């Protein structure tokens, strides 16, 4: 397994929840995930939403919710129109 280059931020963190979505911090950038585009988080337990793990170069996993997302999917949800029913 290769180590990440020095200075490259490889962590992920949910910064907070709002009535309309959640804020995610990764690679030094903040992203807003609206419940409209990412319905899996809307009625999820707070603890489960904050339990996010980095997967590979640009993937994220919420193991308690069985949700896996890519950074591209977060940046461009219109490219991935299938959504789970919530």
Automatic annotation (TrEMBL):
InterPro entries: DUF2442. It comes from the Bacteria. Pfam families: DUF2442 (PF10387). This is Integron cassette protein.
């Amino acid at each position: 397994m290769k180590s990440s280059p020095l200075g490259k931020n490889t962590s992920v963190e949910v910064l907070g929840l709002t009535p309309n979505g959640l804020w995610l911090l990764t690679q030094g950038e903040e992203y807003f995930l609206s419940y409209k585009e990412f319905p899996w988080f809307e009625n999820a337990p707070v603890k489960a939403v904050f339990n996010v793990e980095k997967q590979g170069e640009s993937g994220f996993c919420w193991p308690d919710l069985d949700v896996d997302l890519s950074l591209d999917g977060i940046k461009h949800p219109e490219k991935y129109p299938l959504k789970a029913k919530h």
